[in-house]
Design brief:
Number of domains: 3
Largest sheet: 6 strands, mixed
CATH architecture of the largest domain: 2-Layer Sandwich
CATH topology of the largest domain: Ribosomal Protein S5, domain 2
Order of helices and strands: HHEEEEHEHHHEEEHHHHHHHHEEHEE
Number of helices: 15
Oligomer: single chain
Helix content: 40-55%
Radius of gyration: 23 Å
Number of strands: 12
Strand content: 15-25%
C-alpha cells in the first residue's frame, strides 16, 4: 500500500462528485488531510478510501416506509473514511472532528448499543446488520481502523447518519474481502439502521448506494426498484438550512415514530373496511398495498371507503380497537410496536390517522406527477408540486415548524419555483428549485431576509450558530453513488 498521488485522487474525485475543475483541488486537499491523519493515528497508510453521499429529498416525504415512491438525489456533501483492516475483531474509528470521541468495539454479533444519540451507534448499526444477515462470519469477522470526516450538515435532514451507516458498511465489507450487490445492501441497511431506534424506510440508504450524477432517483419499495431521471439543465436545487436542529433525540424519534404508527393504523382500518366490503380478508401494514392500482378499484371509491373507515376526527386506541373488532392489546401489538421492543404510548390528542393517510396518498401522487413533469420539461408544474408537498407536510403530517414555513415563504418570494421542507422534518433544511440564471440572486436575497433578518429577530428560538453562510445555504449538485478507492 502506498499513499495515492494528487493526480489519482483528482481522477477519483472528478468521477465521484461530477465536480468542475475549480472544485477539485479543495477536495483533493480534504482527502489528503484524512489520509495523513490516518497514517499519523495508526502508524500505517490506509488500505482504501470509502465515501458515501448524503441526499436531499426533492419530493416524497414519509412515503417510503408506507411502500410509496420517493424522489431524492445524492448531494456532493458526504462521509469519507480512510480505512485499513485490523488484524483481529477490533473496530476502531477516529473522527476528524474532535467533538466526537474515538469509538472502539469488537465486531461480534450481537453488538450492544451505546447510549441513545451516540455517533458510534451508526457504525454499529451497519456492522450489526451485516453480521445479523451472516454475510460476514460472525465468529471470524475482521474489524477495521478508520478515520472519518464528513461535510454533511448535522441534524439538517440531509441524511448524515445514513451516510455514516453506508460508509461503515462498505468499510466492514471491504476489510473482510466481501462484496454485496448494491440493491441488496440498500435493503439490508434500511433494516439495519433501525438499530438506532427509528422506524424509517429505505430511501436514504438506497440513494446513497444507487445514485447517478446529474440525475434524481425515483425509488419504489417492497421490492426496492430505482429509476434515474435526468434533472433539467436550467434548474438548480438550493439547500437552505433553517438553523433549527432536527436531531435524532428521544423526543424527535417519538414524533417520527408516532407518524409511522398512525400510518399503520390507517392501513389497518382501511384493510378492515375493504375486507368487510369485498368479503375477503385484506391485511397489510403498507398503505401502498391499498392503492387503487393494486386494488383495481376507482380512486374515488377507495378514498370514500377510507374516509368512512377512518373519519376526520382524532381516534383513541379504544375506538380503533372497536372499529377493528380486535382487543386493545392485539391492536397495540400489531400496530404500536417499535423496533426498540417497546410500544408507542397513546397520544393525549389521539391518533391523527386521517391527516396522516391523506398526506401519504396525495404525496405519492405528487411524486409520480413530479417525475412526469421533469420528463416533459415542465419545471413550472414541478415547482408547484413541491409547493403543494410542503403544505401537506405542514398541515396534514405536522412535520414543519415556523422557521421552515418562513424560509419557504421567503424562498418563493425570491425566485424559487418550488420550495419545501426536506427530510424527516421538525427543523433541518428546505430544498428550493431555482432557475439556474437566478441562483446567485436567490442566495443573496434569502441570506439577507432569513439569515440576516428573520433569525436575528427570533434568535431566542434556539437556533444553531452560523459558522459559515456557505455551509448554510448552498447549491446541491446531484453526485454519484457511494464508492471505494482501493490504494495500491
Amino acid at each position: 500500500m502506498t499513499i495515492p498521488t494528487e493526480q489519482q485522487l483528482a481522477q477519483y474525485i472528478r468521477h465521484a462528485y461530477a465536480a468542475p475543475a475549480d472544485e477539485v483541488p479543495a477536495r483533493v486537499h480534504r482527502y489528503t488531510r484524512l489520509i495523513q491523519q490516518f497514517s499519523k493515528t495508526f502508524g500505517i497508510p490506509p488500505h482504501a478510501i470509502v465515501r458515501a453521499p448524503g441526499r436531499v429529498n426533492v419530493i416524497g416525504e414519509h412515503t417510503d416506509y408506507n411502500g410509496y415512491p420517493v424522489f431524492p438525489m445524492a448531494i456532493d456533501r458526504d462521509v469519507v473514511m480512510a480505512i485499513s483492516p485490523s488484524s483481529g475483531e477490533t473496530v476502531e474509528v477516529v473522527n476528524s472532528d474532535s467533538r466526537y470521541e474515538r469509538r472502539l468495539f469488537p465486531a461480534r454479533f450481537p453488538l450492544g448499543a451505546y447510549p441513545q444519540g451516540d455517533w458510534g451507534n451508526y457504525i454499529k448499526a451497519a456492522i450489526n446488520g451485516i453480521l445479523e444477515a451472516e454475510i460476514v462470519d460472525r465468529q471470524r469477522a475482521l474489524g477495521f481502523h478508520a478515520v472519518v470526516g464528513g461535510t454533511i450538515p448535522e441534524s439538517a435532514g440531509l441524511s448524515s447518519s445514513s451516510a455514516l451507516v453506508v460508509a461503515s458498511a462498505l468499510a466492514f465489507l471491504t476489510s473482510n474481502g466481501t462484496t454485496v450487490e448494491t440493491q441488496t445492501l440498500a435493503e439490508l441497511l434500511a433494516h439495519a439502521e433501525r438499530y438506532v431506534g427509528s422506524e424509517g424506510g429505505g430511501m436514504d440508504q438506497a440513494v446513497s448506494l444507487l445514485a447517478e450524477p446529474r440525475k434524481g432517483l425515483k425509488i419504489d419499495f417492497f421490492p426496492l426498484r430505482a429509476h434515474s431521471v435526468d434533472l433539467p439543465m436550467d434548474l438548480e436545487f438550493v439547500v437552505c438550512n433553517s438553523l433549527v436542529s432536527a436531531p435524532k433525540t428521544e423526543s424527535a424519534q417519538h414524533a417520527y415514530n408516532r407518524r409511522v404508527v398512525e400510518c399503520r393504523l390507517a392501513a389497518a382500518l382501511l384493510s378492515r373496511a375493504l375486507s368487510d366490503r369485498r368479503g375477503k380478508v385484506q391485511h397489510t401494514t403498507l398503505l401502498a398495498d391499498l392503492s387503487p392500482e393494486k386494488l383495481k378499484m376507482d380512486e374515488r371509491e377507495v378514498n370514500a371507503i377510507a374516509e368512512q373507515a377512518i373519519g376526520e376526527e382524532p381516534l383513541s386506541l379504544a375506538e380503533i380497537s372497536r372499529r377493528l373488532q380486535e382487543p386493545v392489546d392485539t391492536v397495540r401489538a400489531r400496530c404500536l410496536a417499535l423496533k426498540s421492543g417497546g410500544f408507542l404510548p397513546e397520544p393525549r390528542d389521539g391518533f391523527l390517522v386521517w391527516k396522516r393517510y391523506r398526506h401519504v396518498v396525495t404525496e405519492a401522487r405528487r411524486v409520480e406527477a413530479a417525475v412526469q413533469a421533469l420528463q416533459e420539461g415542465n419545471i413550472q408544474s414541478f415547482g408547484e408540486l413541491m409547493n403543494r408537498s410542503h403544505a401537506s407536510c405542514r398541515d396534514d403530517f405536522g412535520i414543519s415548524c415556523p422557521e421552515l414555513d418562513a424560509l419557504v415563504s421567503i424562498a418563493r418570494r425570491n425566485g424559487a419555483l418550488g420550495a419545501r421542507l426536506t427530510g424527516a422534518g421538525f427543523g433541518g433544511c428546505t430544498v428550493n428549485a431555482v432557475p439556474t440564471d437566478r441562483v446567485d440572486e436567490f442566495i443573496r436575497r434569502v441570506s439577507e431576509e432569513y439569515y440576516e433578518g428573520y433569525i436575528v429577530q427570533t434568535r431566542g428560538r434556539g437556533f444553531l450558530q452560523i459558522e459559515e453562510l456557505g455551509e448554510t445555504i448552498f447549491r446541491s449538485r446531484a453526485s454519484n453513488r457511494a464508492s471505494i478507492l482501493t490504494l495500491h
